[in-house]
Structure formats: structure tokens, C-alpha cells
Amino acid sequence: MIIDADVHISPLFESGYGISAEELIRRMDRAGVDKALTWLQPPYLRHIDDSNEYVYKASKRYPDRILGFGWADPNLGVERAKDMVKRCVYEYGFYGVKLNGAQNSFYIDDPRISIPVIEEIARTGKVLAFHVGADAYEHTHPFRVGKIARMFPEVKILMVHMGGAGLPDLSDSAIEIAGEHPNITLVGSSIKDLAILKAIKSLGASRVCFGSDTPFALMHVELAKYKVLLEGEVSEEEKALIMGGNIKRLFGL
């Protein structure tokens, strides 16, 4: 089973922003991807509620293909963000909630606005995901994820982009932090191939997941990159973990 661990869709696709759920399914079929961990792609400071709802409806239309995952923005108010978490988990049945300190502009370990929302996610027992990229490295630096992983050792954490998504490349820090905290799993999207391979060699195949960052990259191209990258470097069993088995285990599929 191939699971893409980083995909975005948007209800604003008709205005040329992002892609629809149907376009995602078309790209998955072209690439040969079975399931996709799917979250929103709104204008990141607006339309979050509508976009979470769109992801939910997409997951209901395509329950065997789309793995719905929520999104919360503490800048809209801590209590409202907590309500977002509750809606995503208890009403929509999502597999977890993502925080993006880059696009939503906050420190992901901020004790005033972010940690209370993380506590709410922890109470649900679901997976917590972070955008961890160089585009706003002070807000989303891997060491901040390490602090959170230490505070919430029972929470399963996805470190999406593993310090990539621009320059400077923070992948070495991401790998080091993940090595210190077994509850962190890396998603190798929007990151150089050498960094992905280093993470696999350093942490083991059970700690790294394939992700395309669709629609910011072409799913079939990213999948082809992974297949070539892993050939001769890992066993077939390890390849199966990276390409979908790890998400399957983390989500209890």
C-alpha cells in the first residue's frame, strides 16, 4: 500500500487556488497512490473552518482514499483553536490535527497560545503534525518540536518537511531531534533526496514517510523520486514502511 503523507486540497479550487478532491483522486490514480493524508490549503489566515469542512466532506466521498487530517490556528484565539481541534476529531473523525507556525505566524512552542492547543490535541489521543520548514525557521525550528515531544511523550508527532521547504536546510537538526524523541516521525516532503536518505540511514525506515506536498509538487514525480532513491538502499520490507506502512501503523489502519 502506498500512502502519500502530505497532500493539500482547497474549496477555493474554482478560483484557481489549490486543487479539488476530485483532482487529488485523479493525481493519485495517475501516480498509483492508494491513500493520501489530506489537510487544507486555504489562504492560510482565512477560511480555515470552511477548508476543514471541505476536507471532511472529501473524506466522506472517498473514504478508501482520503485520510482526513485537521488544522488549527491559535492566532484566531486559543479557545476557538481548541474548538477547531474538537470539531476535527470528534465531529469529523480526523486522524489528527496540524499546526503551521510558518503560514499562521506563531512559535509552535509558545506557552501562551500554542501549548494549550497542543494539550487539547493530546487529550484526544490523535496524531499531532507540524509544518517544520526553513520558510519560517524561528517559528518552526526542529528544536521546538523536540521541546514539545519531551513535554508530550505519549503524543505521536509528524514533522512535515523535516526542516526543508527552503533555505537554510534544517534537515540535520530535524534528524538529530527525531533521534532523541521516539514519538517523532519525519515526513520527507519538499526536502532534498540526500536528506531523506540520511534520515532513513540514521533513524531507520520506521521513522520516515513518503510525502509529495501536492499540489506544490507533482505526486507522480515525487513518487518516482522515492522509488529511485530507495532502490538498492533499503530492503523491500523497509521500502513498504516508508511508502505507507508507517502511516498505516501510526493511524491504526
Give the helix level as a range of percent. 40-55%
Please identify the structural class as seen in this structure: alpha/beta
Give the strand line-up of the largest sheet. Answer: 4-5-6-7-8-9
The best one-word shape is globular
Count of DSSP strands = 9
Helix and strand element order: EHEHEEHEHEHHEHEHEHH
Please give the largest β-sheet.
Answer: 6 strands, parallel
**Name of the CATH first level:** Alpha Beta
In the CATH hierarchy, the architecture is: Alpha-Beta Barrel
In total, the number of domains comes to 1
Kindly report the average pLDDT value. 95
Tell me the β content: 15-25%
Under CATH, the homologous superfamily reads Metal-dependent hydrolases
Distance between the termini: 11 Å
Write down the CATH topology: TIM Barrel
Computed Rg: 16 Å
Low-confidence stretches: none
